């Protein structure tokens, strides 16, 4: 299997299980209806682990454009391969979302809430304040990428790394996912959002394109800063890029703080 196909398959598995659990707890008539946040966060963590187990030995199981870009920025991945990986991740995410749609085919029409249907595919903020939402996604992806890099430095029994990364995803979801639903992955959000747009889902709403940039830009900035922070602090390699991105991050934090009173539910 090529690395391109591996990223497609791994991301498809991620979305099939991740989107699937949201469908299970959200759609009318599902046996898992109202399973709650803990069920969602645990399943998403395991979804990442299963995708990584499937293709980690082939492509490294990035499954996330923010991680791919972050690794390339610090020299741990070839820039020439970045577009191919991101394309594969997007394709895999769309396929995974289509499979979730087909799995729950009989549940879309009985489910009256269009927001619940959309939530199966992509994230939405609890409070609509773009800079605060961007901040949340940046922090979540910062700790995701920093955690993945730090985990990689430990001597761990072969085969356990995906489970440990899965545990990291679980705690990110439980601790940091409340404000935005923790996309922390541009492909995880944008790919299924595109699928929601073109699938013939009965009674669906618009795909909330006005918010769609947040779970793309936030994770890219946060992941980039996480990787640069790792190189600067953990490996002691001073980089001008770290300070430039740091200033951008700080400016976003200040902007979020100064406009937070304009929050819209």
Automatic annotation (TrEMBL):
PROSITE patterns: MIP (PS00221). Pfam families: MIP. The lineage of its organism: Bacteria, Bacillati, Bacillota, Bacilli, Bacillales. The chain crosses the membrane at residues 6-25, 37-62, 82-104, 138-157, 163-184, 213-234, 240-260. This is Glycerol uptake facilitator protein. Keywords: Membrane, Transmembrane, Transmembrane helix, Transport. GO terms for cellular component: plasma membrane. It is a multi-pass membrane protein. One of its GO terms (molecular function) is glycerol channel activity. The keyword Repeat does not apply. Its main location: membrane. Gene3D superfamilies: Glycerol uptake facilitator protein. NCBIfam families: MIP. SUPFAM superfamilies: Aquaporin-like. It is found in: Membrane. Belongs to the MIP/aquaporin (TC 1.A.8) family. It comes from the Bacteria. InterPro entries: Aquaporin-like, MIP, MIP/Aquaporin, MIP_CS. PANTHER family: AQUAPORIN OR AQUAGLYCEROPORIN RELATED (PTHR43829), AQUAPORIN-9 (PTHR43829:SF9).
């Amino acid at each position: 299997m090529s690395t391109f196909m591996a990223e497609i398959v791994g991301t498809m598995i991620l979305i099939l299980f991740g989107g699937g659990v949201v469908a299970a707890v959200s759609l009318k008539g599902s046996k898992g209806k109202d399973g709650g946040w803990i069920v969602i966060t645990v399943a998403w963590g395991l979804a990442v682990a299963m995708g990584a187990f499937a293709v980690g030995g082939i492509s490294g199981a990035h499954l996330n454009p923010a991680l791919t870009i972050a690794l390339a920025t610090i020299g741990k991945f070839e820039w020439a391969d970045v577009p191919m990986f991101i394309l594969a991740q997007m394709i895999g995410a769309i396929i995974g979302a289509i499979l979730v749609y087909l799995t729950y085919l009989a549940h879309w029409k009985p489910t009256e809430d269009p927001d619940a249907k959309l939530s199966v595919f992509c994230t939405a903020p609890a409070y609509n304040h773009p800079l605060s939402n961007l901040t949340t996604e940046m922090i979540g992806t910062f700790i995701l990428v920093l955690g993945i890099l730090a985990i990689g430095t430990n001597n761990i029994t072969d085969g356990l790394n995906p489970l440990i990364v899965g545990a990291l995803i679980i705690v990110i979801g439980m601790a940091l996912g409340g404000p935005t639903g923790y996309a922390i992955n541009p492909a995880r959000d944008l790919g299924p959002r595109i699928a929601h747009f073109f699938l013939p889902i009965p009674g669906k709403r618009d795909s909330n394109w006005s918010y769609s940039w947040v779970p793309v830009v936030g994770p890219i900035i946060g992941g980039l800063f996480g990787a640069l922070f790792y190189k600067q602090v953990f490996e002691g390699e001073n980089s001008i890029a770290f300070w430039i991105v740091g200033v951008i991050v700080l400016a976003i934090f200040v902007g979020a703080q100064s406009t937070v009173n304009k929050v819209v539910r």
